[in-house]
Amino acid sequence: MIQIQDIDHVVFRVRDLDAMVAFYKDVLGATFEKYQEGPGLYQLRVGSSLIDLVPVDGKLGRMGGAAPGAEGHNVDHVCFRVRPWDESAILDHLKRHDIAGEVVSRYGADGDGPSIYLSDPEGNMLELKGPPAL
Length: 134
What we know:
By secondary structure, the protein is an alpha/beta fold. It is 19% helix and 37% strand. A four-stranded mixed sheet has the order 1-4-3-2. The radius of gyration is 16 Å and the shape is globular. The model has no long low-confidence stretch (mean pLDDT 88).
């Protein structure tokens, strides 16, 4: 039997690599991990996971067809588990980056808990998920 423990990485096909790298680093605190020149893969670390960015006009990106846009996305959303969860500090940080956020209780892998939806510069929906409510 296969027992999945966590998400290893997520891959986004992107139109504007610089804007996407800046968002994930400046807003979500990702750090540069590695660049793989062959496939044109930019890897950023978030906690124990990676966010891979693949330019749509690169070797690997062209294999995915049309670029994501208003009428089509690669995924519905990706949820990032955030610990520690300091609601006011998180909302203040997002506001400094001109991102409006609303905390709503949603169910996730840990149970019901605080959650904020936001979009990256290319419209990928993201969820920041806090710990389960006690």
